[in-house]
Amino acid sequence: MVRSPPSGRPIVLFGEATAYPHGVDYPQTLVEGDMVLIDIGCFVGDYRSDMTRSYVFGTPSDRQREVWELELAAQAAGFAAALPGNPCEAVDKSARSLIEAAPGFESDYKTPGLPHRTGHGIGLEVHEESFIVRGNNRPLETGMCFSIEPMICIYGAFGIRLEDCAYIAEDGPRWFTKPCHSIDDPFGYEVMAEA
Q1: How many CB atoms lie within 10 A of CB 143?
Q2: 3-state helix vs strand vs coil in the chain, percent to 5
Q3: CB 153 within 8 A of CB 113
Q4: pLDDT higher at 124 or 26
Q5: What is the rounded CA–CA span in Å between residue 191 and residue 195?
Q6: Can you tell me the distance from the alpha carbon of 160 to that of 21, in angstroms, rounded to the nearest whole number?
Q7: Measured between alpha carbons, how far is 175 from 38 in angstroms, rounded to an integer?
Q8: 53-91, pLDDT tens digit by residue?
Q9: How many Cβ atoms from other residues are within 10 Å of residue 56's Cβ?
Q10: Does pLDDT of 22 surpass 80?
Q11: How far is 107 from 175, CA to CA, in rounded Å?
């Protein structure tokens, strides 16, 4: 049975507000060219899901497209590091290293860059152990479920978060949801139409 969460709300952000991982408490007005961030989830039985998509209302600028593609690459790097036996922090380090190596981005949880953990455990609660963050040396084990969402924050401009949940199978990581295809098709509508 799939049902909406009984408490809490999805996060919907526009423009500069998308740079804040947990949202803002002021009214927003959507305008052409704004980055849009939507963080949603639901229940399947008693288990939680969590997914975030970022895209542009209108045509993406070159800078929006460049940062979006960096975010997608960082998410893929985190996924590639999610191997059984690797520490949880390896996923964070892999995604973070890719962002830090890009021109103009800061290291060590500073902005512009990745000031937030790369993911969290998910199950009966939406945010639970084990956190995908520096310092968490717990080894990834078969059956563990967690998000991979290395959010890029550029205060004063925009932020981009692509969040999908994965689990550890005996031979490596598997996605619960498919990561975004492109900034122009963040929900995969074109991909579905081609299938």
Answers
A1: 10
A2: 25, 30, 50
A3: yes
A4: 26
A5: 7
A6: 9
A7: 19
A8: 999 999 999 999 999 999 999 999 999 999 999 999 999
A9: 20
A10: yes
A11: 27
Strand, helix or coil for residue 174: strand
Helix (H) and strand (E) counts in the chain: 3, 13
Q: Is the pLDDT of residue 43 over 80?
A: no
Cβ atoms within 10 Å, residue 25: 7
Structure tokens at 37: 């961030």
Q: What is the DSSP letter of 19?
A: G
Q: Residue 180: enclosing H or E segment and its boundaries?
A: none
Residue type at position 171: D
Q: Which domains does the chain have, with CATH numbers?
A: 2-184 (3.90.230.10)
Query: CA 41, CA 9: separation in Å to the nearest integer?
Result: 9
Amino acid at 120: H
Count Cβ atoms within 10 A of the Cβ of residue 7 and give its class: 0-12 exposed, 13-18 middle, 19 or more buried: exposed
In the predicted structure, residue 124 carries a pLDDT above the cut 80: no
Tokens of residue 155, six digits? 């205060």
Cis peptide preceding 112, ω within 30 of 0: yes
Cβ proximity of 131 and 123 under 8 Å = no
Which run of H or E residues covers position 181? none
